[in-house]
Amino acid sequence: SLILTKLLGPVTLGFYQMAQRTSIVPLSEIHRSVSAVAFPVYSKVQDDLPKLRHAFLRSAEAITSLTLPLAIIIVFLAREFVEVALGEKWLPAVSVIQILAVSAFFSSLAGAGNILFMGMGKPWLGFQLNLLRAITVAAAVFPLVMMFGLGGAAYAVLLASGVAFSFYLYHSFSILRLRPADFLKALLPALSAAVAIALVAAGAKQLLGPISLPGLVGVAFLVFSTYGVVFLVLWWKFKMGLINSVLEMRQ
Questions:
Q1: pLDDT tens-digit profile of 42-78?
Q2: Cα–Cα distance between 69 and 114 in angstroms, integer?
């Protein structure tokens, strides 16, 4: 924020802060809610590696299943949302909203690593993750803002989120003795559903053209409905996905 104000002025900072509230904040709230449930579970089973690994995979699946569709909707409908809800004067924030939505998705998963590290009694790993993210932003934001303007700040945050996500994967896999294939298998239902809603969102935009507020609400409803139907099919036919995980936890 300080660098944006200094280099590009307070108006640009306003665009960035609006983009941040529109993209990062909603996904962060989902991550916090899931983490509040996961932390006591990690603490309880920290000495039982198979149960800890299972809890980690279910947590990662839940965060991905809840944040990825929202991130996709933000990326595909950011321009329409800004035009309808905020007005054309906020259009410079559209690309920043889209970049920060992708960043927020990776940050949500990396934040799950923080909870895992704390639940296992290894808070220093969470500190290192956050420190690494802060150092990356501090090192990257100035040159990227100079090269890309407002978008450069969003790219710096995205880069930092990618670095933190890599740190999270490396240490989580190492601690849990987890294979990448197991992690991808746990996320496969959510990723499959995400592909479906991305196709629906793209197709709806092409068919409808300029979108009004009712149209925007209708597209969002269609996308979320598609997501729900995919998860119902995955549960009904294959006994996998978020619905199956929730039922398993209740049992």
A1: 888 888 889 889 888 888 888 888 888 888 888 888 8
A2: 23
- Least Cα distance to 93 among 10, 23, 11, 18 occurs for 18
| Amino acid code (one letter) for 124 | W
List all residues 6 or more positions away from 116 whose beta carbon is below 8 Å from its beta carbon.
38, 42, 56, 59, 172, 175
CB under 8 Å to 190, separation ≥6 — which residues?
61, 64, 65, 68, 241, 242
pLDDT digits (tens, 9 = 90+) for 133-142: 999 999 999 9
Q: By C-alpha distance, which of 219, 237, 102 is closest to 157?
A: 102
Nearest-angstrom CA–CA distance, 203 and 62: 27
pLDDT (tens digit per residue) in 34-50: 777 888 888 888 888 89
Q: What is the DSSP string of 193-238?
A: HHHHHHHHHHHHHHHH-S--HHHHHHHHHHHHHHHHHHHHHHHHHH
Class of residue 14 by CB neighbours under 10 A (exposed 0-12, middle 13-18, buried 19+):
middle
The answer to pTM > 0.70 is: yes
**Do 119 and 250 meet the contact criterion of CB atoms below 8 Å apart?**
no
Q: What is the DSSP letter of 92?
A: G
C-alpha distances in Å from residue 183, one per residue of 63, 76, 80, 190: 13, 27, 34, 12
**Nearest Cα residue to 62 out of 50, 54, 72:** 54
Question: DSSP for 14-80?
Answer: HHHHHHHHHHHHHHHHHHHHHHHHHHHHHHHTTT-HHHHHHHHHHHHHHHHHHHHHHHHHHHHHHHH
